[in-house]
Amino acid sequence: MIEETEARVYMTANQGRLMVRVWHSTLGFTTPGGQPTWVHIRLQVPARGAYRISSEAYHGVFGVRRLTLSAGSFRGRVGDKFKGIPGYIGGVELDNVILTGDVDISNEPDALGAPITAKVRIASTCRLTASTGGAINIAIQPDPSLGVRALGGSNGGAVRIAINEGAPREGVAREFKSQDQAESREYDRKPVRVEVRATTGHGNVSITSVPAAPLPPK
């Protein structure tokens, strides 16, 4: 029944920090027809300051838009859409996000794994790791002070790396059927550096340098 759908919010202040937890624990279905309920949760916070965000999602898109992240851990799981029938998740999106710390995005590695899309600006040296079974698209805002070291790999799709002033990296062990790796010229001398690793079991991988522009609306 639709009435069995539950969404909960927990908020507290701890040592001067606001902690917010939002979770959707139970999914209801229509009767007759057995169609799942669509649940949307939107959390708006002040844009100033840096945030640490962790998430775990089984259904729907998890998105972060126009925030600064000091740390991020995003997990996408494949649950049961119906009893005994694997479901899906809608993907992870970072839209115009500034990174000042490490971010790790990990979805299921099989064919049901959801896509990952990220458009980011790098403000401090960090790592961005993305792993899934679907497509990965990462766009990094170029900057003269930024060095990018990137590796993309797929066992079932194409890999494309096109970073600003990038050059192929030699001597990297091959891990995937399709793999590419590149880094900015004089990477080690750049004051700000980012290491990007994007791997997928089935989809395509794209890691590019793109000037600031919003992602296309859903």
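Above is the first protein from milestone M3; the second protein from the same milestone is given next.
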Amino acid sequence: MKLFSRGAFLAVVGDDDQPFWLCKTVYQVTGWDKRAFDIRWLEKADGDGDVYKLSEEENSLGIESVICRVFPRRTKNGGGGYVLGKAQIERVERCMDEMAEGRNPVFNEDTNGFYFDDIDNGESLRS
């Protein structure tokens, strides 16, 4: 079962200073039995506000750290940066609130995606 495609952007659990971090998968993530997978972090660009740059270094991340998949936009200036829109940020925050209340996303075998039915309106957390 494929959980995340190669190149998928994910929001993962952060810390007190930043509630979530962004990363990009290096390889396809194929199932819960693979407890860790390789990623590259998206780091805030110096002096560019909400623009993120993809790091060169690869790291390993535990599957339990994933909040949901996100869809950043490329910056228009051609600098290779990414911007996470307001709607995406709000969606991550809603997922974090649901998880803090003890709810976990439900896997739907028909669509091969994860959902919080009442907050995502059927939008997959994976697709």
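Note on the second protein: Residues 9-120 form one domain.
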